[in-house]
Amino acid sequence: MSSSTYAPSTAQTQYIETKSARFAYRRLGPVGGVPLLLLHRFRATLDWWDPRFIQALAAERDVILFDNIGIGYTKGEPLRTVDAFADGAVEIAEALGLSQVDLLGWSFGGVVAQKVALKRPDLVRKLVVAGSGSGTAPGMPAMPERVATIMAKPGSGLEDLLYLFYPETDEARAKGLDHFGRIDAEMPEGAPQVTQEAAMGQLEAITATLAAPWDDVARDLATITAPVLYAGGAHDVMINAFGSYAAVQELPNAKLVLYSDAGHAFLFQHLDKFVREVLVFLTD
Fold it and tell me: How many folded domains does the chain comprise?
């Protein structure tokens, strides 16, 4: 499918069998070079990536979206640890015959992407960590109670999602409405949702990550030698930008980009600028 016409409602979903699952994935963009594997957020399937974001990346890169085990189109027992999610990402990469990948992980996907880089440094060429973190650094502000409440709910309405992903300004809200409007308009009929059991497995993995001793986290980060682009919104209520600042101080080869007027969904609020940042980073 041409990258200029990507839409979840019409995209071809392919499947590949592995020892653990029948993975669902979509692949688009020019074939050649190192593919860009995307790892998505908490409570999302591959249908939830912003279509414009995927189009822009795939204009220049071989892009692969997938659902991990027990999520969306990929059936299986829900996973409950970051290690298990990382193993799933490695498994589909190997099943597709990829000897090396670039990773872009957003939110929970960023946590998983970093774990992949730790477990399989030979597989990961470059790493983009978007709106994510590596644990709870000393002095990092606590997650607001409203965020924790929304994350545990079986479903979230539009106002909940706007609160989680966009600052409460007129300009940011307009961007948020545009983003969610595109996703809603292109959502395939009968598209699978993330089950509550699978979401609670993700939440269990997130909770364990936040509880990890920072000394252990910092020691792990120091071993990631692949170039890393950390990026986020300065007003992220889900994963405070302080965590990004703390992480890049431990990574030996990292760059930090923060968008001062954005939140968790900065990558869609500043879609064109962030895509260009990613493409330049992956090309250099």
Answer: 1
Q: What is the pLDDT of residues 171-218, one digit of tens each?
A: 999 999 999 999 999 999 999 999 999 999 999 999 999 999 999 999
CATH number at residue 218: 3.40.50.1820
Judged by phi (left if over 0) then psi (alpha if -120 to 50, else beta), residue 72 lies in left
Dihedral angle of Cα 104, 106, 109, 110, to the nearest 10 degrees? 70
Residue whose C-alpha is closest to residue 106's, from 232, 210, 204, 13: 232
DSSP letter for 65, please: E
Q: Is the pTM of this model over 0.90?
A: yes
Q: 262 lies in which domain range?
A: 3-283
In angstroms, the CA 263 to CA 232 distance is 7
Hey, what's the torsion of the CAs at 104, 110, 113, 117, to 10 degrees?
Answer: 100
